[in-house]
Each structure stands twice: as C-alpha cells, then as structure tokens.
Amino acid sequence: MDMNQHPVPRTASQERKTAETAIRVQWTLDGCGNNQIKTLIPFLDHMLNLFGKHGFFDLTVEATGDIENGEGDEEEMDC
To answer: What is the separation of C-alpha 5 from the centre of its chain, rounded to a whole number of angstroms?
Structure first.
C-alpha cells in the first residue's frame, strides 16, 4: 500500500426494530475508544462503554424498548 493512501475504515452498522424494542449500533474498529451508549439498563451501558474503551474502538448503541417485562429483550438484541 502506498504511504499516501488511507486504509479503508473498518466500520459496521445495524438497526433493528421489533414491536417491543428498537436498537441501532455503529462500530468503528479502528477508533479511539469514543463511545455513545444509551440503553435503559445502566449496567449494560457501563459494560459496553468499557468494551469500547479498552478495545480502542468507537461504539454507538442506542436501544429503547419495553424493559418492564425484563431486561432480556435489549440484551438479546445486543448479541
């Protein structure tokens, strides 16, 4: 590769909506550890922030939905 060429950024994004939940994820593998995590589950927010920070990639997660029936809906969608 020529030194003047920039490598292709390694990124991914996914969005999913169901009757109960909606989630949007953007991931930049060659990032700096900048994260914007917003779910309705504080512990999940904390763990995803640590995942991005210590993995040195940028992660954006926005998840909304019905968590009155349990936290399983959003956790399943993150996998």
So the answer is: 28
Q: Return the half-sphere exposure (C-beta side, CA atoms, 13 A cut-off) of residue 11.
A: 12
Is residue 35 within 8 A of residue 49, CB to CB? The reply is yes
Query: What is this structure's pTM?
Result: 0.72
pLDDT on residue 75:
58
Contact 32, 49 (CB under 8 A): no
Task: Determine the residue type at 64.
Answer: T
Residue whose pair of structure tokens reads 């060429």 in the numeric block: 5
Are the CB atoms for 43 and 55 separated by under 8 Å? no
**Each residue's pLDDT tens digit, 12-52:** 999 999 998 999 999 999 999 999 999 989 999 999 999 99
